[in-house]
Amino acid sequence: MKLRKSILLVAVLSLAFGTAVFANSKGFTIEFNRNTVNDSVQADGDFYFNVRTMANSMHYLYEVDRQSKRVSIFKPNVHLLTINPATNEAFNVVSKGRTKFLVFAQVDNLNADISALKITIDDPYKEETVVHSRTSSDPDFPSRSEFNTSTEVVYDFNSGAGTYTLKYWMQLRGQSSMQVVAEKAIFRR
Q1: Domain 77-188 coded CATH 1.10.10.10
Q2: What is the mean pLDDT of the chain?
Q3: Going along 85-175, which residue ranges are E strands?
Q4: Distance CA 160, CA 179 (A)
Q5: Which value, in Å, is the radius of gyration of the alpha carbons in the chain?
Q6: I want to staple 162 with a disulfide (CB 3.0 to 4.6 A). Which of 27, 51, 124, 130 is the partner?
């Protein structure tokens, strides 16, 4: 019953934050930031959505504790800023070639223990490159109460003009997979 309420709460919150939901003959189609998700089941007049799909689409962290039959969903508030170190100014447009920049991530409302983080960049063809990673065993790993990171990145924006997607990933302690909690678009002319 708690799982049903949790799923219902996630669906209601997603509607409150401007998520478009449309009915079709197979169930619901959910659109999150122009990403369509077709992963629902209708039973007894209620709609049920896959927790993994919902969490990934909305940049939530989630964990499943099968022993206690509990699903926990966390939404850290993550702000990403890309800064040109030469000018100390924020940017989101680059030219072709190798670019050095800082990625500043301010994280608050983190109500879970994190064991790893990474930063990736997807080029316009969806090829992913890991540009930074850390684990909780690293001496400079941020604490839960002050989870802010500043990272110097060097990346070749040579895959063509278009949108490159900077992604900030976190891994919950005790989990094996990482989940995207924030994205930022960088446009290459």
Answers
A1: no
A2: 83
A3: 89-90, 93-94, 97-108, 114-122, 128-135, 148-157, 162-172
A4: 27
A5: 18
A6: 124
Q: Considering only CA atoms, which of 120, 185, 125 is closest in space to residue 153?
A: 120
More confident residue, 45 or 109: 109
130-169 burial code (b ≥16 CB/10 A, e <16): ebeebeeeeeeebeeeebebebeeebebebeeeebbbbbb
In the predicted structure, residue 8 carries a pLDDT above the cut 90: no
pLDDT: which is higher, 8 or 20: 8
pTM exceeds 0.85, yes or no:
no
Question: Residues 97, 154: contact at Cβ < 8 Å?
Answer: no
**How many C-beta atoms lie closer than 10 Å to residue 79's C-beta?**
13
Calpha distance 189→179 (Å, rounded) = 29
pLDDT band at 3 (very low <50, low <70, confident <90, very high): low
